[in-house]
């Protein structure tokens, strides 16, 4: 089997696909089912707009999702799977790729980490409605127009601004998808809560590190970025705060339903000391643990 070519630059990718390089740091490539692209470029950001929705388990399509187009993303540091490249080689649509250097010294460079969907897994793709797909198409069209204009003293600013607008729309549509997936996500939320509660109730916190969202995400076979986004949408808490909130909920239950001492509860739930537990508990509830037990 012929070894896949590793593409490391915009120009190399354009050359292989016989596409004119209008800018060395960003490119928009039209794809069809016969496009011979060896592999996804590494070290680059990529957004694939697949004309025909990939409504299957590979992209994580749910019955509550739209199916008019699929948006798949990749970041420079995310490993590219064989499944990603297989979809790319059979895709009909549009591939936007850009180098991180395009963002240097810009507002977007400071905020690119906020677009966490770049770190979502392949099976956490975005499934678009007709209206959403038309908006993405329009923004890609505007980027093409600017690339066709050529490079001058304004082109970099305009390209980054148009790219920022496109990413904001992607962010908006991903948040919409969390809304339409509410019922499906409740199951994932329940599984997350179960993992956290099981960990603390097993007293592992006495002698092991506390669970992290990364380890929980790995157990659930989802990306850390997706689980973080889901928790924030469904609960209003980021990952670390959600774990802390669940730990304090368990502390409340033990204060009310057991005769365990404050020291034992603090130790079993993995607090560094009873003093820290009391301080945190009072800051959150307004009572120290003993007062809370007596009040209730």
Largest sheet: number of strands, sense, barrel closure: 5 strands, antiparallel
Number of helices: 12
Secondary-structure element pattern, one letter each: HEEEHEHEHHHHHHHHH
Specify the oligomeric state: single chain
Q: Looking across the biggest beta sheet, what order are the strands in? A: 1-4-2-3-5
Report the helical percentage. 40-55%
Arithmetic mean pLDDT? 90
Sheet-strand content, in percent, reads 5-15%
Radius of gyration, whole Å: 24 Å
Total strands: the figure is 5
- How would you sum up the global shape? elongated
Task: Write up what this structure looks like.
By secondary structure, this protein is of the alpha+beta class. About 50% of the residues lie in helices and about 10% in strands. It has 12 helices and 5 strands. It has a 5-stranded antiparallel sheet, covered by helices on one side. Helix 4 runs antiparallel to helix 5 and helix 6 (about 180-200) packs across helix 9. The longest helix has 26 residues, at about 155-180. The mean pLDDT is about 90.
List keywords for this structure.
alpha+beta; 296 residues; 5 strands
Please give a quick description of this structure.
The protein has about 300 residues and is an alpha+beta fold.
SSE map:
Layout: H1 10-16, E1 26-31, E2 45-50, E3 69-74, H2 82-89, E4 93-98, H3 107-111, E5 126-128, H4 130-149, H5 155-180, H6 182-201, H7 213-220, H8 224-235, H9 239-257, H10 262-268, H11 274-285, H12 289-295
Antiparallel strand pairs: 1-4, 2-3, 2-4, 3-5
Helix pairs in contact: 4-5, 6-9
């Amino acid at each position: 089997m012929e070894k896949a070519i590793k593409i490391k630059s915009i120009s190399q990718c354009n050359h292989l696909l016989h596409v004119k390089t209008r800018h060395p740091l960003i490119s928009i490539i039209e794809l069809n089912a016969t496009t011979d692209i060896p592999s996804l470029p590494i070290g680059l950001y990529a957004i694939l707009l697949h004309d025909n929705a990939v409504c299957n388990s590979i992209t994580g399509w749910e019955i509550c999702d739209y199916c008019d187009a699929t948006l798949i993303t990749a970041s420079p540091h995310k490993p590219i799977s064989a499944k990603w490249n297989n979809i790319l080689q059979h895709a009909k649509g549009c591939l936007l790729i850009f180098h991180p250097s395009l963002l240097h010294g810009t507002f977007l460079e400071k905020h690119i980490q906020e677009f966490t969907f770049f770190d979502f897994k392949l099976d956490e793709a975005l499934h678009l409605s007709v209206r959403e797909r038309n908006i993405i198409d329009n923004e890609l069209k505007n980027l093409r127009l600017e690339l066709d204009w050529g490079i001058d003293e304004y082109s970099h600013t305009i390209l980054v601004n148009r790219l920022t607008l496109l990413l904001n729309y992607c962010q908006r549509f991903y948040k919409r998808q969390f809304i339409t997936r509410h019922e499906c996500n409740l199951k994932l939320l329940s599984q997350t809560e179960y993992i956290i509660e099981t960990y603390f109730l097993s007293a592992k916190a006495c002698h092991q590190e506390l669970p992290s969202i990364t380890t929980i995400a790995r157990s659930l076979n989802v990306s850390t970025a997706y689980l973080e986004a889901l928790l924030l949408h469904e609960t209003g808490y980021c990952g670390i705060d959600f774990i802390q909130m669940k730990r304090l909920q368990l502390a409340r239950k033990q204060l009310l339903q057991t005769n365990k001492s404050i020291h034992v509860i603090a130790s079993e739930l993995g607090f560094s000391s009873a003093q820290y537990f009391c301080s945190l508990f009072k800051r959150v509830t307004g009572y120290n643990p003993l007062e809370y037990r007596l009040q209730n």
